Amino acid sequence: MRKSVLAILCSDLHLSLKHPLIRIKEPDWMQAQKRVLLQITAIATKYQAPVVFAGDLFDRWDSPAELITFALSYLPDPFYAIPGPSLSSLGGQGEKCLRNSGDGRQGQTER
């Protein structure tokens, strides 16, 4: 009997516009992040399962719109983001960061 995949769980991607020091030799940091997001999307498509991000999708709670738009361009649809302590302490403002990217796509958040 084949078991179905209920969801794909990811965490701690720490997406950022600036590469971390440990990845300084990466020739194109944005391309490296895009590659990871596309891999996650491919897995979600293969298993026909939603993706749940369990915190630290971005490296900062106040990530720039450019980075949020970039992420939404390559994240699977649908995806769910569970706010971590830094987003929860904003009184719901962190959820707005994920929902209002300005490009028409909306990330879905659950509490």
Layout: helices, strands, pairs:
Elements: E1 8-10, H1 29-47, E2 51-53, H2 65-74, E3 79-81, H3 85-88, H4 93-99, E4 108-109
Parallel strand pairs: 1-2, 2-3, 3-4
Quick rundown:
This protein is of the alpha/beta class and 111 residues long. Helix content is 36%, strand content 10%.
Can you give a write-up of this model?
It is a single chain. By secondary structure, this protein is α/β, with parallel strands linked by helices. It has one domain (8-18, 27-109). The chain has helices spanning 29-47, 65-74, 85-88, 93-99, and strands spanning 8-10, 51-53, 79-81, 108-109. The chain has a four-stranded parallel sheet, with helices on one face. Strand 2 (51-53), helix 2 and strand 3 form a beta-alpha-beta unit. The longest helix is centred in the middle third of the chain and has 19 residues, at 29-47. The protein is globular. The N and C termini lie far apart (33 Å). Residues 92-111 have low confidence and may be disordered.
Feature tags:
single chain; about 110 residues; alpha/beta; 4-stranded parallel β-sheet; 4 strands; about 10% strand; globular; disordered C terminus
Q: How far is the first residue's CA from the last residue's CA?
A: 33 Å
Largest sheet: 4 strands, parallel
The 3D shape can be described as globular
Number of individual domains: 1
This entry's quaternary arrangement is single chain
Helix content: 25-40%
Order of helices and strands: EHEHEHHE
Radius of gyration: 14 Å
Q: Runs with pLDDT <50, length 5+?
A: 92-111
Strand order of the largest sheet: 1-2-3-4
Counting DSSP H or I runs of 4 or more residues, the number of helices is: 4
